């Protein structure tokens, strides 16, 4: 049996081991091919797994960490004090070839900084980008960057488009996926200079199915398969989507009955049906962003992820190994032989 070996930062995020450990146990039960290195406070972790099956725990390897990197400190301070932290050890296991992919719910900037330091960007990639899968009217879309790069120049946007296209081909199984730049209008003269310049370059790339600009109201209309933007716009877009989704489901669940008492059962069934039909828009099902452009797979989980959501991030890490996303990005950039990617 060929195993998939993951290293998981067990201490980061809003809830730490209380959410991460049950998610790992759930994943180990569902996939007998998983081997997990779990980095964190072994005393806390052992208290959470002491009743689990012995044979299952043989695939869970605990590694003691000394510290947790706080989200409140600066990037430079975090990197300087990262030795012995759960996040750094998890990344070092991937760097050293002991694990094939890393999952962390830690601070995005710190995870990106340490990943660039330890895992290193692929040759020719200027800056890695955060990419995730989101639901659309039909199927799914990929959107990047989600916050790894607040400011993105023309070169970076072009690279994001290439990486997003490869991710759509492999993860979503879309042949020659459509790629669009997120902009304030469809006209050629609309938008900032970096977006307009990236558009001119993408039009001349034969290996990218670039379709032009897309506006925010069409993101989920399935007019494209990949949406490309800078991290500032992408992060706000993602957070807005998450907020609207939470409001919608909360409203449906908590809405007061407008029907007579004898029809309450029927209304309850209707409410459940609505929730079921729109369950694909539950953000828990899409937790986990791929840090594209690195030599090895790194997955960023939402800091507030619950058990179900963190298990999705683990699933994404397994997919990134199976689909060999870093290798495919590297090969496509090399074959494209585009000088401005260097």
TrEMBL record:
It is found in: Cytoplasm. GO terms for biological process: fatty acid biosynthetic process; phospholipid biosynthetic process. Keywords: Acyltransferase, Cytoplasm, Lipid biosynthesis, Lipid metabolism, Phospholipid biosynthesis, Phospholipid metabolism, Transferase. GO terms for cellular component: cytoplasm. The lineage of its organism: Bacteria, Pseudomonadati, Pseudomonadota, Gammaproteobacteria, Enterobacterales. It comes from Candidatus Tachikawaea gelatinosa. Its EC number is 2.3.1.274. It is an enzyme of class 2 (transferase). Catalyzes the reversible formation of acyl-phosphate (acyl-PO(4)) from acyl-[acyl-carrier-protein] (acyl-ACP). This enzyme utilizes acyl-ACP as fatty acyl donor, but not acyl-CoA. The keyword tRNA-binding does not apply. GO terms for molecular function: phosphate:acyl-[acyl carrier protein] acyltransferase activity. Belongs to the PlsX family. Pathway: Lipid metabolism; phospholipid metabolism. InterPro entries: FA_synthesis, Phospholipid_synth_PlsX-like. The gene is plsX. Homodimer. Probably interacts with PlsY. Gene3D superfamilies: Isopropylmalate Dehydrogenase. It catalyses: a fatty acyl-[ACP] + phosphate = an acyl phosphate + holo-[ACP]. The keyword tRNA-binding does not apply. It holds the Pfam family FA_synthesis. This is Phosphate acyltransferase. Its main location: cytoplasm. NCBIfam families: plsX.
């Amino acid at each position: 049996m060929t195993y998939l070996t993951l290293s998981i930062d067990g201490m980061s995020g809003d809830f730490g081991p209380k959410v991460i450990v049950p998610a790992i146990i759930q994943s180990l039960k569902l996939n007998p091919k998983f081997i997990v290195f779990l980095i964190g406070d072994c005393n806390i972790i052992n208290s959470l797994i002491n009743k689990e099956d012995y044979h299952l725990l043989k695939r869970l390897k605990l590694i003691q960490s000394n510290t947790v990197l706080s989200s409140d400190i600066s990037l430079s301070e975090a990197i300087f004090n990262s030795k012995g932290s759960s996040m750094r050890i998890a990344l070092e296991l991937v760097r050293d070839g002991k694990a094939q992919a890393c999952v962390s719910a830690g601070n995005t900037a710190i995870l990106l900084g340490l990943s660039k330091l330890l895992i290193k960007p692929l040759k020719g990639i200027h800056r890695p980008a955060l990419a995730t899968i989101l639901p659309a009217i039909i199927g799914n879309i990929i959107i990047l960057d989600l916050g790894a790069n607040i400011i993105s120049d023309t070169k970076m946007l072009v690279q994001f488009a290439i990486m997003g296209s490869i991710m759509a081909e492999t993860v979503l199984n879309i042949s020659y996926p459509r790629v669009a730049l997120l902009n304030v209008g469809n006209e050629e003269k609309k938008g900032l200079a970096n977006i307009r310049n990236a558009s001119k370059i993408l039009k001349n790339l034969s290996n990218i199915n670039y379709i032009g600009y897309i506006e925010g109201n069409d993101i989920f209309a399935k007019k494209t398969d990949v949406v490309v933007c800078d991290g500032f716009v992408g992060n706000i877009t993602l957070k807005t989507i998450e907020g609207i989704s939470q409001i919608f489901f909360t409203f449906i669940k908590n809405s007061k009955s407008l029907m007579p008492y004898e029809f309450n059962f029927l209304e309850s069934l209707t409410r459940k049906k609505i929730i079921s039909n729109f369950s694909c828009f539950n953000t828990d099902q899409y937790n986990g962003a791929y840090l594209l452009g690195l030599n090895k797979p790194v997955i960023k989980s939402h800091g507030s992820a619950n058990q179900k959501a963190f298990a999705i991030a683990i699933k994404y890490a397994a997919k990134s190994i199976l689909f060999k996303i870093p290798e495919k990005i590297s090969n496509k950039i090399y074959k494209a032989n585009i000088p401005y990617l260097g």
